[in-house]
Each structure stands twice: as C-alpha cells, then as structure tokens.
Amino acid sequence: MTVPAYPAYRESGVEWIGAVPPTWQIIPLKHVVSMQSGEQITAERIEDEGGFPVYGGNGLRGYTTAFTHDGHFALIGRQGALCGNINYANGQFWASEHAVVATPRVPCAVRWLGELLRAMDLGQYSVTAAQPGLSVEAVGNLRIPLPPPAEQTAIAAFLDRETGKIDTLVAEQERLIALLKEKRQAVISQAVTKGLDASAPMKDSGVAWLGQVPAHWEVTRLGRVTATKCDGPFGSGLKSEHYTECGVRVIRLQNIRMGHFDDTDAAFIDEEYFRVSLPGHDVQEGDLLIAGLGDDRNIVGRCCVAPAGVEPAMVKADCFRFRLFTQHALPAFMAMQLTAGSQFDAGMMSSGSTRSRIPLSVMATRSVALPPLAEQQELVEEIEARSRDFDTLTNEAHHAIALLRERRAALISAAVTGKIDVRGLELSAEVAAA
C-alpha cells in the first residue's frame, strides 16, 4: 500500500530519527517511561498453568502464584541473544530478571511505545559481560520522537493492522517450509524402503518400520556390512583442555544431522595427542556417522556421511563411526535409510527419559534392507535430485520471509519516525471492512 508523507517536516537533530513532523517533540525516553529490571524467579516457582504469567526476554515462560506488576507494559529483553527483544504484557504478571519492564510515565499508546522501542534496535546498547546486558541508563537517555496522543493511537492501530497482514504471510511461508520438509522426508523414506519401480515384486521384511520391501533386496543388520566401528572416547580421554584452534577435527553430535553433515560448528584437538592417545576413534571421508544420543528435536540414530576434506578427524563420545564394506553398502544410501528409520528405532532401542541413548553394540543391530549396489547408487542419485528441487523451493520461501521481515521493520521505522502519515487510515480501513 502507498502511504503519504506529512505535509511538512523539521530536523530532529537525531541521526536515526531524521526529520519529523513539526508537531512532534524530541525528548529523552526516560521522560516517557521508567524502566526497571524484572526480579529473579527460580524454575521451581514456574508452573505450566494457573496463577499469573511469567515473562522473560522472549515472552511467556509459564505461570506463578506471585506477581509484581499490574497494567499494560512493554517488556524489553535484557540479556543474551534476546537483548532488545520487545514483547507486551497486560493485567497481573511477573517479569523475570531477563526482562526490563517499561512503564509509561505519561499517558501513551503502549503498542506505539513497543514498536518505537523495536525500531530503536536496543540490542546495540548492551553492556559486554559474560552475557550481553541492556544498559537501562543508556537507553533511558536516548532521545525519541513523541507524537501527540491521537497520532500515537493512529500509529499503533496502523501497525497492528499492517504488521498483522505481514505476519500472516510469514506464517504461510513457514507452514510451506514445514510441509516441504515433511514431503522431502516422505519421498526419501518411500525411495529407500520401496525403491523406484512400483511394479517390483515385494516381500515382508520382518521389520515393522520397513514393512514390505522389493523381493530382491537383502534384509540384514548394520553390523554385518560393517568392517570396523567405534565410539568416541569417554571420561578423561577428551577434556576441554585438549581442544585447540586447529588440528584433528572432533565430530560432535551437532555435526550429525538428519542425512547430512553440518559443518558450521567445528572443534579441534592437538594432532600429536590424538595420534598417541586416541588413534582408535578416527574418521575418514565416506564413513557412516551415527548419533548415539538424542532428544525430541534431534533424534537418536540419525545418520550422515563424513564429507570430503574432513580428515584428520575423530568422533566424540556418543558419536559412532561405522566403516562399511562398500562393495555391499553405499554409505550415502545407508545414511538415508537409517535416518528414515531413526524415529522407530529410537523408540524400540533407546533408553533414557529426557534424552534417548542407543549404545554402539545395539546400534550395530539396526535392520537395513539393501538393494544391489547399482540400485543403491541409482536411488541416491534420484533422492539427491529430488532434494535439490525441495532445496530450491525452501530457499525461495526463506527468501520471501526475509523480504517480508525487512518490509515489516521498514514499515515500523517509517511510522514511528513520522516518515509516513497514517492519520485517517484507521477510519479508511474500518469503512473498507464494513
């Protein structure tokens, strides 16, 4: 939509604000709101329901029977990656130590206030410490543009309506990404358990999650197509003091994803220490890597293949390396099939309440259904081609989300600094809706 500018402007004298309408004031934020850090609350005092909501730096955390605030407020994230994050609270609530409560000193539209704070990028005013912490004093001294009350209300209504439309579009793209992920996994699962030939004769695999497989596929155990296997070192074998800036790559659980190797988080140990003390935990290009520990978001038993250039490398504890007989099993095919069955195997083979664990010896008993080697290669190539199509669609959706969020931020900034005149637009919207 096209929104007009104000008919006249004057310079604010503040770089991030720029020119403002002549009726707007430029005053320190502390004259409009008081800011106070929330109070410490332990996890034991937070329940799932009942009582009063507990807000932290990222919004609602749970509920408690005590409260410290009553009214309408903007909440500012105070620490860590959420420093400067903006949320809203009303009624009776508790603000934890990870939030700053911005309480209006003068009558103002809280939604306008919150969007103004969001546009100010408050995270840049954090104080360096073990975790970044918002400098309340520095923020309070910042000068802000203050419209007349009626314009605050108009800005709040405009942004509530327009950002709501953008948020709906973002949610649609996020749903599309989730559906693409599900569809991708379904395509992989279908291919690695049923093959590409829909007319091929089938047989019962004897394995619940595999079900019927092509009659010419061999059903066996992972250990039977493995030349050697190992776990990472436990206990004192690998401590924090052993890590270095470079040397032998240490493959950790966060590197083993669902069917692919995540190279974004690298750790190393001294090469001589590895050679002398940890030689039996080595990893080579093409080795099958399996996670022996998992949770609801990262399933135990997920697999990937060690990529080219990873050497010299080793596995950490709870990360398993299987070196396959490649004349019988392609690592890429095995990673796809075992990952497809990881959720079932996690339920059948794992132990643990909060985190699931499958020992190395048990992991080696996982069932696999192997086509002839040439067919494995054909399946891998087909799956990779289909995956590229899904990647393209997913990247397009992520790009659309990025553009929508840029548009959202630009719209907020333009409205709260007076670059667009939203007066009267609320009435126009109500007439259009009627």
Please give a handful of descriptors for the protein shown.
single chain; 434 residues; alpha+beta; Adenine-n6-DNA-methyltransferase TaqI, Chain A, domain 2; six-stranded mixed sheet; 27 strands; 33% helix; 24% strand; elongated
- Helix percent band: 25-40%
> Per CATH, which architecture of the domain at 196-370?
Alpha-Beta Complex
> How far is the first residue's CA from the last residue's CA?
19 Å
Shape: elongated
| Structure classification | alpha+beta
- Strand arrangement, major sheet: 4-9-7-8-5-6
**Which fold name fills CATH's third level, the topology of the domain at 196-370?**
Adenine-n6-DNA-methyltransferase TaqI, Chain A, domain 2
- Radius of gyration equals 28 Å
- Stretches with pLDDT under 50, minimum 5 residues: 430-434
Describe this protein's structure.
The protein is α+β, with helices and mostly antiparallel strands and 434 residues long. Among the domains are: 25-145, DNA methylase specificity domains (Adenine-n6-DNA-methyltransferase TaqI, Chain A, domain 2, Alpha-Beta Complex); 196-370, Adenine-n6-DNA-methyltransferase TaqI, Chain A, domain 2 (Alpha-Beta Complex). The protein is built from nine helices and 27 strands. The protein has helices at 110-119, 136-140, 149-194, 271-277, 331-340, 342-349, 360-363, 373-416, 425-433, and strands spanning 10-11, 19-20, 25-28, 33-37, 52-56, 59-64, 69-77, 86-95, 99-104, 126-127, 133-134, 143-146, 202-204, 212-214, 218-221, 226-230, 243-244, 248-251, 268-269, 282-283, 288-291, 293-294, 303-305, 313-315, 319-324, 356-357, 367-370. The strands form nine sheets. The protein has a six-stranded mixed β-sheet, covered by helices on one side. Strands 17-19-18-24-20 form a five-stranded mixed β-sheet. The protein has a four-stranded antiparallel β-sheet with strand order 16-25-21-23, covered by helices on one side. The chain is elongated and about 80 Å long. The two termini are 19 Å apart. The model is unreliable at 430-434 (pLDDT under 50).
